[in-house]
Each structure stands twice: as C-alpha cells, then as structure tokens.
Amino acid sequence: MTKVAGRLSLINLLLIHFNYQIDEIMKLYSILLVIIGMTVASTGYAQKEVVEDTLTVKGVCGMCKERIEEAAYGKGVKYATWDKATDQLAIAYRTDKTQLEEIEARLLAAGHEVNGKVPAKESYEALPKCCRYEELEKH
Ligand SMILES: [Cu+2]
Prior knowledge:
Alpha-Beta Plaits
C-alpha cells in the first residue's frame, strides 16, 4: 500500500509540476500574444493614415467635373470633389493604398492640367471640344 501511495504521490507531484510549467508557459504565451497584438494594432493604425489635399485641376464645364472626379477616384481614394468656379479638387486618400503621384497621373491621362503639370498633347486633344480648357471660358 505504501508503495502504491508513494507512486501516486510521485505522479501527483509530476502532474503538479507539469501543471505549474503549463501555467508559466501559458502566462508567457499570453504576454507574447498581447505584445504581438499591440504591435500589429499600432502598425495597422499607422498604415491607415488618411491624407487630405487640394489640387488645382483645369476644367471648364460639368463634363469636366465628371471626368476629373472619375479620374481622381481610384484605389485608396476616399473622396474627390472638383469645384468648377475655383478649379480646386478636394481629395482624401489612404497613404498605404495610393499616393498623390498616382492620382495626378490619372488626371493627366484624362487630359487635365494638375498643379501646373501639363498633360500629354494627345490626352488634351482627346477631350471633347467643349472641354478644351486652354481655349474656352467656363461654361
Ligand atoms: Cu468639360
């Protein structure tokens, strides 16, 4: 009997020891998870930064407005609103998804001058006659 009791208590001791280790491992593991979680969360927030900007985009009519806003919209662009009277295009975009150069490139490809950057001759000439902002007044 004493032998059995001795064995049992040894097993119990081993189990207690094992449980203790598991406890310590779980504690370390949860601390590690919290650290990983915080790192992921902080980099996530940093990447999701939204930048607002205003670009001067030349145009003359309602058709220009549609074309300019459509060209400005793209991956990562939250909004794009062009004002015909002032030529100002208000935009907001996510810096982890796009960059200003990409938005400008689309506007130039659509034939519109952006912040003094002139589109390729073919792009400008592809505009309908009523949208030739270099030759026409606002209408
Ligand atoms: Cu137009």
